[in-house]
Amino acid sequence: MSKAVFDEMPEPNVVAWNALLTAYIRCNDVMGAERLFYLMPFRDLTTMNLMLAGYTKSGKLDLAKKLFSGMLVKDDVSWSTMIFGLSHAGNYVESFRCFRELLRLGLTPNQVSLSQVLSTCAHTGDFEFGKVLHSLIEKLGLAWIPSVNNALLDAYSKCGNLEMAYLVFERMPMKKNIVSWTSIITGLAIQGYGEEAIRMFNAMKGSGVRPDEIAFVSILDACSHAGLIEQGEKIFSMMSNYFGVDPTIEHYGCMVDLYGRSGQLRKAYDFLVQMPIPATAVIWRIILGACSLFGNVEIAERANERLAALDPANPGDCVLISNIYAHVGEQKHVVSLRQSMVEQNIRKTPGWSMI
């Protein structure tokens, strides 16, 4: 609803007010939405949920928490919105706490809440709570919902329990989609099962599911961790030639990492400088890290030159190149580099320990 149409209404009801509030939020005008919210002569639960969504969407969590705590009535949308907002902002502990409070009150979580908390388990590696949620999903009869099943699969995969991930994957009552396949491939990649990841990737293609950008990142990452150079090259080539997926900086980074981890530093460097898109500092650090592993001073110096231009004040890069010099006995360069760090006031970030 436009503001002009709303202004023509002699006595707009709460539905009209909510429609205008929705328009403000969809336009990411949270300040305008907030002004309207406090002008409203009456508010219902939908109004409160809309404003709550506006705050969480814009990252204004303090305002969201204040509004949420003051709501006399909350429904499953209220809870799922708050849980999503907390988790999306990286406040995983508070997200868990909010979900547990929902359960303590005897309320039934909806599929959005469950999917989001499972995603939080994946980020935090909380396998035990993931199992609790799995039991709850079975009890509520929500295992048939694709988003819930995929979130459960992703949680088990990223928590490192491939046995449970496989169990969920094989028992899926619905046709597996790209999210399902990518989750299991990602889990295999994380655990270093490159050959099995490729088998699943081929099975996905055989089932008629076309891999997308994210799936290609996962399978290339699997090849990198397992040192499967030929397979990685073949998959990278088929991205655009067969599937019409243009490689992004993430895919190029996977290939540089693939060559670097395998010790093929010249190939990694040549691939990097021939990329059709500018390399980021992250990719140059990948090759610098590989040089550190294999003691290649020549390419390390070239990478360090690029990093000095892209991110000159990063102490980690200076320390890494210094360690490479030390590793090959170039003490003169070590002293010179550390003196340069002092002159430029570049300080190594101190480590810390809980011991």
How would you describe what is shown here?
- The chain has 355 residues and is an all-alpha fold.
- The chain has helices at 3-8, 14-26, 30-39, 45-57, 61-70, 76-88, 92-104, 111-124, 127-140, 146-158, 162-170, 178-190, 194-206, 213-226, 229-241, 249-261, 265-273, 281-294, 297-310, 315-327, 331-343.
- Helix 6 packs antiparallel against helix 7, helix 14 runs antiparallel to helix 15 and helix 17 packs antiparallel against helix 18.
- The longest helix is centred in the N-terminal third of the chain and has 14 residues, at 111-124.
- The model is unreliable at 349-355 (pLDDT under 50).
Order of helices and strands: HHHHHHHHHHHHHHHHHHHHH
Unreliable stretches (pLDDT < 50, length at least 5) are 349-355
Backbone CA Rg:
26 Å
Structural category is mainly alpha
**Terminal Cα span:** 59 Å
Multimeric state of these chains? single chain
Helix segment tally? 21
Mean pLDDT: 88
Helix content estimate = over 70%
State the major sheet: none
Cα shape: globular
Strand content: under 5%
How many E strands?
Answer: 0
GO biological process, one term: RNA modification
PPR repeats: 44-74, 75-109, 177-211
InterPro entries: E_motif, PPR_At4g14850-like_plant, PPR_rpt, TPR-like_helical_dom_sf
Protein name: OLC1v1012526C1
